[in-house]
Automatic annotation (TrEMBL):
Species this protein is from: Gordonia insulae
Keywords: Hydrolase
InterPro entries xref list: NUDIX_hydrolase-like_dom_sf (IPR015797), NUDIX_hydrolase_dom (IPR000086)
GO MF, any single term: hydrolase activity
Biological processes per GO annotation: nucleoside phosphate metabolic process; ribose phosphate metabolic process
PROSITE patterns in the record: NUDIX
Name of the coding gene: act
Name of this protein: Methanol dehydrogenase activator
Keyword Hydrolase annotated: yes
Keyword Phosphoprotein among record annotations: no
Superkingdom to which the source organism belongs: Bacteria
GO cellular component, one term: cytosol
Alphabetical list of SUPFAM superfamilies matching this protein: Nudix
Domain Nudix hydrolase: 54-187
Gene3D superfamilies attached to this UniProt entry: Nucleoside Triphosphate Pyrophosphohydrolase (3.90.79.10)
Length: 222
């Protein structure tokens, strides 16, 4: 690892080739669903700069489409903005080390809208705000739906309601500003684009380059 001011690797690297090595790190906050750490990162030219990083479990979300082409959405209260949002079923990757992202998506689909699906594909992967957090999300398209018994719900989810929208209606609500949740916007528009282009979607075991692991590994060390 080169030291600040020692020269060569940091100063001589061509544009786009610098390694951004971490010279040191400290934990500032360790909470229930996120951890804030500060990394000392070696910049081009030899300077060391602090970068705040929010570690997050990561998440999954599901575009669940029925035989009529409608998608299942939930209207859920979101405390940081103080109102209910219309969203796709989604949840954290917090089910433990043996739960895969696909398993988590299946769990969330059952817990939030009482559905299971027999056909799954990866729709799109998202890095939600890479300027300060490793939070990433995998969106699935779930089809051939089956109804499950009603799940027991708590806290905000006890107040949640389910709404079925046609894809055209959902796209219209995105463009009209009614659907603003970033994950839901991406999922709805990606589904519409895939349908329009006839694109084949990825299998559920497709590599997920930016799947976040730092917080899960931190919790496993406790």
């Amino acid at each position: 690892m080169s030291k600040p001011g020692s020269g060569d690797a940091s100063r001589g690297a061509a544009s786009g080739e610098h390694g951004f090595d971490v010279a040191g790190t400290r934990t500032v906050y360790d909470g229930a669903i996120l951890t804030l750490r500060v990394d000392e990162v070696e910049m081009p030219g030899g300077r060391v700069a602090e970068r705040e990083v929010v570690e997050h479990f990561g998440a999954v979300a599901v575009v669940a489409r029925d035989a009529e082409g409608r998608i299942a959405m939930v209207r859920q209260y979101r405390h940081p903005i103080g109102r209910r949002l219309l969203e796709l079923p989604a949840g954290l990757l917090d089910g433990g080390p043996d739960e895969t992202p696909l398993d988590a998506a299946k769990r969330e689909l059952g817990e939030e809208v009482d559905l299971a699906a027999d056909r799954w594909h990866v729709l799109v992967d998202l890095d939600l705000s890479p300027g300060f957090t490793d939070e990433a999300l995998r969106l699935y398209l779930a089809e051939d739906l089956r109804q499950l018994e009603a799940a027991e719900r708590h806290d905000e989810e006890a107040d949640m309601s389910v709404e079925w929208l046609t894809l055209d209606d959902a796209v219209g609500r995105v463009l009209g500003g009614d659907i603003v949740n970033a994950t839901s916007v991406a999922g709805i528009l990606a589904t519409a684009a895939a349908d329009a282009r006839g694109v084949g979607l990825r299998e559920t075991n497709a590599p997920w380059t930016d799947e976040p692991t730092a917080l899960r590994e931190r919790r496993a060390r406790r």
